[in-house]
Amino acid sequence: MLHSNLLRLVARGSSSRLMSTATKLTTVEVNDETGIATLTMNRPPVNSQNVQLLLDLQASISEIENNKSRGLILTSAHSNVFSAGLDIFEMYNTDVERLRTVWTELQNVWIALYGTSLPTAAAINGHAPAGGCLLATACEYRVMRPNFLIGLNEAQLGIIAPKWLMSGFTNVLPKRVAERALTQGRMFTTQEAFEAGLVDEIASSKEEAVEKCAAFIGSFAKVNPLARGLTKLQFRADNIKEFEKIREKDVADFAALASSPEVQKVMGTYLENLKNKGKK
Ligand SMILES: CCCCCCCC/C=C\C=C\CC(=O)SCCNC(=O)CCNC(=O)[C@H](O)C(C)(C)COP(=O)(O)OP(=O)(O)OC[C@H]1O[C@@H](n2cnc3c(N)ncnc32)[C@H](O)[C@@H]1OP(=O)(O)O
Q1: ipTM of the predicted structure?
Q2: Which has the closest alpha carbon to 239: 123, 111, 94, 125?
Q3: Which fold would CATH assign to domain 9-279?
């Protein structure tokens, strides 16, 4: 009988092990040769981030930190979407407590990924709007497949993203480019993202993207992991401290905004448009 905790299954031949079975919407697979863990989001059809996916992401990040992996690659099980961001259905017509939970768990995933000392990279094998871009920019390196879109489109939706949500984005782009993109709610094509520095490399397939992410993580092979991790965290410390100061207030602000009749109306219209798009 397979026990759900701490299972180490031989997944594909002998070169990688599927580590986690306790979670359902994410999987963790560790490459035996490189020691690098691949964390795959698998919530069809678009990896929209509901509370369960956010909790599973946190559990998988902890598992990877605890199993002595050499690094973490975040990717998606789907062919054309990395993650569609927060699950708007979960935020629509719901109570304030649920909205508080959604936002708290988004914060928790972000801080787990942004604040890990492990080397991290995102193999962006599809669109990455809003919360999808948030996860990708919490990582240290990004490799993206061609002809997809990535960006923080909150301004387009009439929403002001808080500073912590923008901080991965503002870390990697020149200030002027970041300000313009955020005020426009701009979605970058893969090529535009590469030219701006939002993604580091372009790969023609998911496999190639994962390989390039692994090569980035492998570039630290000869660096002392403690020195590397602490150096990374020194770079991120200011953003993390700022976030810790406002995290409670940020949850309250989000719940008040997202439950307001105006924003609920925008969500309803947005969801209608998304549904109708599928019928065209
Ligand atoms: C809109 C107002 C939101 C107000 C929020 C209040 C305050 C929040 C503050 C800040 C929060 C920011 C973080 C966020 O992440 S907000 C989420 C923003 N996300 C998006 O705008 C992405 C929307 N989706 C898309 O653009 C596309 O779906 C795309 C990801 C590009 C994939 O395109 P495609 O492959 O063509 O797939 P479809 O559009 O046909 O979608 C397939 C089905 O998936 C459903 N879907 C898509 N996105 C979401 C989502 N974010 N949440 C829930 N469901 C989603 C879509 O309706 C289709 O469903 P069905 O097949 O049943 O029709």
Answers
A1: 0.95
A2: 111
A3: 2-enoyl-CoA Hydratase; Chain A, domain 1 (3.90.226)
